[in-house]
């Protein structure tokens, strides 16, 4: 259920291209993704709709914080007003800071989904989970050996067959 909700949110927040990604861009994106670097959507063909991201984030925050606020209202009535103001400022700061984390997390999820989709196009016989690290090593070796773009696929497949 959570995966279905995540996919609904992603399809609402992001514009995802139907065009395939070039092999070299896929290999570079996979290399960066495996190193834990956040990817830009330009090479992988996706773009964030910022207004919709804010809307979904605010809805999710309200789903979490509204019951807490309603339950804690009685407690906050009897607490010193300075403490209530401090807690309000603190929670507001956390909400604004967490939007960046939300955006980065969703961007990583879209990149992972997009890399898997394109992997099935470029390497249909090699499962991503099994061969991604091996192909990353071959790709790094191809960069060191100055393999041309048009020879890259053949080079990778030749090295995989060894």
* SS-derived structural category: mainly alpha
List the helices and strands in order. HEHHEHHHH
Q: Using DSSP, what is the number of strands?
A: 2
Low-confidence stretches: none
* Net shape: elongated
Q: What level of helicity do the residues show? A: over 70%
* C-alpha Rg (nearest Å): 22 Å
Largest sheet: 2 strands, antiparallel
Mean pLDDT: 88
**Cα distance spanning the termini:** 42 Å
- So how many helices? 7
Spell out the blueprint of helices and strands.
Blueprint: H1 2-13, E1 14-16, H2 23-34, H3 41-44, E2 46-48, H4 50-78, H5 81-122, H6 128-144, H7 152-161
Antiparallel strand pairs: 1-2
Description:
The protein has seven helices and two strands; from the N terminus they run αβααβαααα. The longest helix has 42 residues, at 81-122. The protein has helices at 2-13, 23-34, 41-44, 50-78, 81-122, 128-144, 152-161; strands at residues 14-16, 46-48. The chain has 162 residues and is mainly alpha-helical. It has a two-stranded antiparallel sheet with strand order 1-2. Helix 2 packs across helix 6 (128-144).
